[in-house]
Amino acid sequence: AQKVTQAQTEISVVEKEDVTLDCVYETRDTTYYLFWYKQPPSGELVFLIRRNSFDEQNEISGRYSWNFQKSTSSFNFTITASQVVDSAVYFCALTPSDNFNKFYFGSGTKLNVKP
Amino acid sequence: DGGITQSPKYLFRKEGQNVTLSCEQNLNHDAMYWYRQDPGQGLRLIYYSQIVNDFQKGDIAEGYSVSREKKESFPLTVTSAQKNPTAFYLCASSITATYGYTFGSGTRLTVV
Fold first, then answer.
1. Looking at the complex, does the CB of residue B100 fall below 8 Å from at least one CB of chain A?
2. Contact A50 B99 (CB under 8 A)
3. Tell me: the pLDDT tens digits for A7-23?
């Protein structure tokens, strides 16, 4: 079975705080891809990052960083020094090799960054 | 600018009516997708199409139909057979799925 769990339904932080969004996935496939998307109030999902199952290297992009750990089936997302513009719903998604056209999305984490 | 255009942004339908949601892309992507999003839930796949004149059912295809007559267009029809159609519908496209999707801005459908 394929499944993505984002246990944090909603998180509120004050601007400039660091915040980590958790993502845990389940798959029996050895080849898969993981993604993070941001959904601002406008509704359109914006691609943030892609990671394949063979690449456990962590990544940093500006204030964003991602920690991929196959041992714990987690792909967590950290925003450093959060800003009000980071307020959005963030989705983690998995696509396994049995059908790369099917993405399995978590239920999303709503992040509220207060000034 | 290249992108995906979904129209209309808001749509109201009376019970028993069919309604068609438009999705057009000028990214030259081969694959296109329709997802449904309900409050507090993730996205669920309705249909996808990898090439023109071919499409596959997703996890929740019942009550929906699609066509793919042109590479740029992938309209979704919500039929009267869909028992709970009120939702936010997102169209997406990709060069290949493992690269990730480009999403449209969505259509919010409300049954009145």
1. yes
2. yes
3. 999 999 999 999 999 99
